[in-house]
Amino acid sequence: MKFTKRRSALVAAGLSGALLLSACGGSDDSGSGGGSRGGGEGGGSYSFYIGEPENPLVPGNTNETEGGQVIDSLWTGLVEYDPETSEAVYTGVAESIESDDQTTWTVRLKDGWTFHDGSPVNAQSFVDAWNYTANSANAQGNSYFFANMAGYDDLQATETGGQPAATEMSGLRVVDDLTFEVQLSAPYAQWPTTTGYTAFYPLPASFYEDPEGFGEQPVGNGPFQAQEPFQPGVGITLTRYDEYGGEQPANAESIEYRIYTEINTAYTDLQGGSLDVLNELPPDAIAGAEEQFGDRFIETSFGDITSLGFPTYDERFADPNVRKAFSMAIDRGAITEAIFQGTRTPAASFISPVVDGYRADACDVCELNVEEANRLLDEAGFDRSQPVDLWFNAGAGHEEWMQAVGNQIRENLDVEYQLRGDLQFAEYLPLQDAQGMTGPFRSAWLMDYPVAENFLGPLYSTAALPPAGSNATFYSNPAFDQALAEANAADTNEAAIEGYQAAEDILIADLPAAPLFYRVNQAAHSERVDNVIVDPFGRVDTAAIQVVE
């Protein structure tokens, strides 16, 4: 998931684990940073910082953290993820997800779940939503996540603006009200683990009557409901849904999602007590935050990566050697220490350390090597007389470290730079998708599910080119796509990992983006709230939060 801001010792569910998932609850710990969700018997209201979402609040078209945080308060998926281990657990809508061949899956739902409008959550709710999201005519940003289903290709128009050959995937079939069948185009044993992601959420029948209006005031099946429209630039207040079908209803009566254009302003409000939850802190506040907030300071590491993306469609960055030169000109360790006080880890892999498949030394061109960088730049004939644009989204604390990247490029490559950080997040992402980046750009990703593939396919496969996915570098290599497909079809966890690493090796050779660092995130909350749990995906469990005064 694209993000502006997403616990170590995280273990990805293995292939056998995906086949044998059983119903279980979360951790029994309590207190800030981890714990039980509570029983929904509390009250009160609290405020929560977000940036402006990119799109209206529709699960199939939300693949960034600002809208995603709100979506997760409004919806519950087939499976959920344990806040301590990130393993998929059956506390969501699914009773079971089973397969004999890892290709055809039977999904059985729990009875009694309803949407906020009172209509039932049934098999049709999922099948219709998935077909809508996959259909290229609907231009949904999460379409890519259905690319491994039989019949997906028939829902993709052959030309821009055209109509696809079908509107329903042949791989989806409703069996009865609480059962549906999913046929994949190839075996994928980890598929059940993926289904807790936003793209797989159900939609009520009312969505199709007015998709645009629905995005302003969504109707989900989660612990909170929207009883008023979302206001751009302001936010939205959600109220507790008393008929929630999950195991743990929301503790608070309501949550106010408050939009800020500057994270420093949000931090000032948190310090003053007028904001209750800030799920990331600005870089210059990190050093003194623990002393200031005490046990209200939360530090967690999770499955994410920050990279410097390259516009492979731009002639200046079409040559992999140019991209490698820029990567080798960056001293990642220096930036993590000077700017982030050691709360970042230099990255040398496209895969996060928290999932199986990570290799600490995978990327040889992710190490500082000024001499080799200049040799490659000269070999590529790069014009050093023209400055490069360095892009990042405004108001989220990125200017200082991006300036440090620019200074290193200038010093080590003798190439001047211009910072391009004037766009808010909701403007920045569409410009990426429209091939509007005129130079290297800040790219960041939080895992959607704990599988190595999630750091590869959604960002770099051909099937994930916008608008179907998040491949903002517009990189495309059939060899990479094939290696990824073979890894997904592996029949053992070991073979899958080997396959993902082979795909990663192709990425490193082409380097459409330069991995920079992995984060340890800092969050904090006011004295008014407790039980603030940040999960392995960087999301706050808003239903668990308790208002204490």
| Secondary-structure arrangement, i.e. CATH architecture of the domain at 304-520 | Roll
Please give the radius of gyration in angstroms: 22 Å
According to CATH, what is the class of the domain at 304-520? Answer: Alpha Beta
Mean pLDDT: 90
Number of helices: 16
In angstroms, what separates the terminal alpha carbons?
34 Å
CATH-derived topology of the domain at 304-520: Dipeptide-binding Protein, domain 3
| Strand composition percent | 15-25%
Q: Return the structural class.
A: alpha+beta
Strand tally is: 20
- Uncertain residue ranges: 3-37
User: Helical content, roughly?
Assistant: 25-40%
Q: Note the main sheet.
A: 6 strands, antiparallel
SSE map:
Blueprint: H1 15-19, E1 45-50, H2 65-74, E2 80-81, E3 88-89, E4 94-98, E5 104-109, H3 123-134, E6 172-176, E7 179-183, H4 191-194, H5 206-209, H6 211-216, E8 224-226, E9 235-240, E10 254-259, H7 263-272, E11 277-278, H8 286-293, E12 297-301, E13 304-309, H9 320-328, H10 332-338, E14 344-346, H11 370-379, E15 388-393, H12 399-413, E16 417-423, H13 425-433, E17 441-446, H14 457-460, H15 478-488, H16 493-510, E18 513-525, E19 529-530, E20 546-547
Question: What can you see in these coordinates?
Answer:
With 549 residues, this protein is α+β, with helices and mostly antiparallel strands. It has a domain at 304-520: Dipeptide-binding Protein, domain 3 (Roll), CATH 3.10.105. The protein contains 16 helices and 20 strands. The strands form six sheets. Strands 11, 12, 13, 14, 17 and 18 form a six-stranded antiparallel beta sheet that branches. Helix 15 packs antiparallel against helix 16 (493-510). The protein is globular and about 65 Å long.
